[in-house]
Amino acid sequence: MPAPSSLQQEPSIDLLEAFTEHWKGLTHYYLETTDENTPVKETDIPWRLKQMLDILVYEEKQHPAGETGPCLEYLLQHKILETLSTLGKAEYPPGMRQQVFLFFSRVLGQVQHPLLHYLNVHRPVQKLLQFGSNVLGSATEKEEVQFAAVLCAKIKQDPALLTYILEGKNLLTASPQGDAGSSQRESLATKGGLTASPEQDRECSMGDAPCASLAGKPKNSVSSSSPLRKENNLITSLINLCKSQKSRVALKAQENLLLLISIAQQAAATYLVQNSALCCLVTDHLCDLYNAIPTSADPADILSLERVSWRLQNNSADEASFPGKGSLDAFFRWLDYCDHLVREAHPVVADAVTETIGETLFQGILQPQLLQMSELGILTSTAMLTAVVRQITAPALLRELVTFLLGTERQPETITNSPQQHLLRFQLIEHCNHLSDEISLATLRLFEELLRKPHEHIVYSLVLRNLEERSYILCSQPGQEERSTHEQEHYEDTLELEEDPYFTDEFPNTGFRACKKAMPSSPQGPARPNEKTDVNEIVLSFLGLVPDEAKTSSYLEEAGYDTYVHDALRLFQECSANISSWNWPQEPKPLEPCDPQAAFYEGHFLKVLFDRMTRILDQPYGLNLQMTSVLSCLALFPHPHLHEYLLDPYLNLAPGCRTLFSVLIRVIGDLMQRIQRVSQFPAKLLLVRRQLMGLVPEEQIDHMTLFQGVVVLEEFCKELAAIAFVKFTPEGPA
Predict the structure, then answer these.
(1) Over residues 61-69, mean pLDDT
(2) Where is this region: Disordered (predicted)?
(3) What is the biggest distance separating any 2 CA atoms in the chain, rounded to whole angstroms?
C-alpha cells in the first residue's frame, strides 16, 4: 500500500498529528452539519476514513514487526472503532453504515498487527455484527459479507479468536499460536487497558449462563428455545447472508461459513457448537426450505431432478420448467451445502450438525410424512426421501440417514420380530408390497437408491444379517457328515424337480424340456464355482429358464446377452469399488452341524421381493422393471453368501427355504400353464415386445400384463446370467 499523498510530499509530517486531524475532521462534521439528508458519499467522511487507513498501514511498515505505532494506539485508546460502530448503527449520514463496514474490513484485513484480541476492537466488531441487517436485499449486504469474510480469515489463522468474536471472552484454552503473541498483547494492555479485565470476563461468563447449561446435552446441541437462536453474531450474520437473493453475496457467505467451521482446533470447534446457534440455524433454514415446497409438487417431477450443487445458481427459465421447481432447487442446493459442510467441518461440528439434521428434518418432518395414511402424501414424501438419499454423500450425514431409515440392529431377523422395533423400516418395506402399485414402485426405487450408497449397514440390515449362518442350506445333523458327492447332489436335484408339481410331463410340446436340459448335469454343490465350465453351467441355467415359446428377443435386432455382460461388468466394478473397505470375506463361512428344527428366514425385505417376484406375470410393467432392478442390484454385491443365495441354482436347500432361482422356477411353472390357455401366444408376445420397443404403435390386446411380464422375465434371466458371469471373471473377486 503506498503512503498517503500528503506523506509523499512532506515525509517529515507527524503521522499521529495527521491521523488525529482526520479523525477530528470527521467528528466535527456531526457538530457542524445541519442537513441530515446529505448522503455520506457527498461529504468528506469517506476520504478521511481512507486517509486514516493509509496512515495506519504506512505507520506499521515503519515499525518492527509486532511493535505498535502511536496512531494504532490512539485508535485503540480513544475507542475510535466503538464510535464508528455507533455512527454506523445510526446510519447518519445516509450510507454511513456501508462506510463503517468498509473501514472495519480494511483495517482488520490490511493491518498485520493482531487486533481482535483487544476489547476496544472485538467489542465494536460484535456490535457491528449485531446490527447487520436481517432484511433480504439490504443495501449493505456486499459490505457485510466482505466484513464477515475478513473475520473468518482471521479466525482460520488463529482459532482462539472465535471466543472473542462470538462472546468476547478470554481464551478457554490457549493455543500455540495464541501463546506466541501473548507477551506483546500483555505489554500493550498495561499501556491502555485494552484487553478485557477480570471483572469484565466474569460479567461475560455470567451473561453466557444459558450456553453453559447446554454442556450436558448430547453433542452439546442448542435447544430451540435457547437465546442463542435470537442472538446476532458472526454465525447469524453469515447464515442471513447465505439467504441473500444476490447469488454472489450468498456464495461468498457460504464459502466463508465453510472456512469458519473447518477450524482445526478442538477447543474452538467445541466452543462453536456449545456457544452458537450454528446447528440450529443451518437446520432451521433447511427445514424452512423443505416446508416451502408446494404440497402439490408432482412426485415424478421431484424424481426427475438431477443432483444439484450449492455453488451453482439456476436461471429463472429453468426454475419455471414445472410448478415448484424453484422451491425444490433451493431446498436441494441447501441440502447439498449441508452435506458439504458436514464433510468439510471439524468432526465435533460435523457430528453436531448431523445430529440436529437427524432430529429436526429426518425425525421431525420426514418420518410423520412417511408414516401417514394418505397415498398422495406417501408418494410425495417417498419421492422427496429418494431425492434426499441421492443427494447425500458425506459419510456422517449418510450414517445418520441410514440409522434413521433402518435402525442399528445387526442380529438376524425372525418371523416374530415386532414392527415396533423399528417402525419406519418395517413400514417402508411393507410399502414395497402396497396395494397401490404407485407406492410400491416409488418405495422400490427408494431402496434401489439406498443400495447404491457406499454404506455397509444398508445391505447388511436388509439382507446379509439373515444369511450369516447360511442356514438356507440343508446341513448335516450332529454326528453326520454333509452329503457332497456328485451323485448324491445330482440325485437330490433331480428328485426335487420330479416331485415339484410344475415339473411334470404334462406339456411335452412346450419347450419346457429344453429348459430342463439346460440344467447342468454335474453341479458342484453350494461351494462357489471356480472353473470356467462351472460358470458356463450357471449362465446356461439362467438363460435356459424361459421356454422357447416365451422367448422373443432372438427375433429382433436388439441388445442381447452380450450387452448385459458389458453393463453388468461396469456395474459390478462400481459396486466392488464402493465396498472395497468393508472387509467382506472372500469365501463362504464353513457350514456347521445345525439344529434341524431351526427355521431359516430370509428377512422382511427379501420376503417382500420374492413375493413380488412370484407375481411378475400379473404386475404392471413399470413395477416389474423396478422390482427386478432392485434384485439385480443385490445380486451384484460381491459377498459370497449373497452371491450363492441369489445366483447359485444348485444349492441343496433346507426344507421350506426358497432362493431367487427357486422362485423363478415356480414362476416358469405358472407360465407354462398359462401358455396353454392363451391362443397364438408366441405371436402376441412378439407384438407386445415390439410395442414396448416402440417399433409399432401401442394397442390394447388381451393378456397385456401377462405378455409384458414375460418380456421382463426373459430380460431379467439374461441379466442374472450376465451378473453371474462377470462375478467370476478376473476383474472381480472370486
Answers:
(1) 88
(2) 176-228
(3) 116
pLDDT band at 65 (very low <50, low <70, confident <90, very high): confident
pLDDT at site 40? 93
- Residue 320's Cα: distance from chain center in Å? 26
> Cα separation of 437 and 109, whole Å?
61
Cell output for 440: 410400491
Return the DSSP state at 630. Answer: H
| CA–CA gap between residue 603 and residue 342 (Å, rounded) | 33
Which residues lie across from 473 on neighbouring strands?
A: 653
Read off the pLDDT of residues 595-643 as tens digits, 9 standing for 90 and up: 666 789 999 999 999 999 999 999 999 999 999 999 999 999 999 999 9
Query: Could you say which DSSP state residue 729 is in?
Result: S
Angle among Cα 365, 339, 148 to the nearest 5 degrees reads 105
Exposed, middle or buried: residue 573 (CB in 10 Å: 0-12, 13-18, 19+)?
Answer: middle
Q: Are 162 and 259 in contact (CB under 8 A)?
A: no
Cα torsion 456, 462, 465, 468 to 10°: value is: -90
Where b means 16+ CB within 10 Å and e means fewer, 67-87 reads ebbebbebbbeebbbbebbeb
Q: What is the pLDDT of residue 192?
A: 37
Separation of alpha carbons 404 and 261, rounded Å: 25
Grid coordinates belonging to 563: 450387452
Closest CA to 178 of 195, 192, 200, 202: 195
Nearest to 227 by CA among 243, 209, 242: 209
What rounded mean pLDDT belongs to the chain?
82
Distance CA 664, CA 547 (A): 12
Give 688-691 contacts, CB < 8 A, sequence gap 24+.
Answer: 689/552, 689/553, 689/556, 690/556
In this structure, what C-alpha cell is assigned to residue 190?
A: 498495561
Of residues 637, 631, 626, the one with CA closest to residue 606: 631
Contact 4, 62 (CB under 8 A): no
Query: Is residue 181 exposed (0-12), middle (13-18) or buried (19+ Cβ within 10 Å)?
Result: middle
Please state, in angstroms and rounded to a whole number, the distance separating the CA atoms of residues 525 and 399: 38
Contact criterion met (CB below 8 Å) for 251 and 142: no
CA distances from 69 to 13, 64, 312 (A): 15, 10, 45
- Which residues have CB under 8 Å from 340's CB, separation 6+? 258, 310, 394
Tell the residue number behind the cell numbers 448385459, with chain if given. 564
pLDDT tens digits along 480-515: 444 444 434 443 444 444 344 334 333 333 333 333
Q: Is the pLDDT of residue 589 over 60?
A: yes
Q: Judge contact between 541 and 648, C-beta under 8 A.
A: no
Q: Which long-range contacts (CB under 8 A, 24 or more apart) does 216-221 make?
A: 218/355, 219/273, 219/351, 219/352, 219/355, 220/270, 220/273, 220/274, 220/352, 221/273, 221/279, 221/280, 221/352, 221/355, 221/356, 221/359
pLDDT at 732 over 70: no
Task: For residue 142, count other CB atoms closer than 10 A to its CB.
Answer: 18
Query: Who contacts 166 (Cβ-Cβ below 8 Å, separation ≥6)?
Result: 233, 234, 235, 271, 272, 275, 276
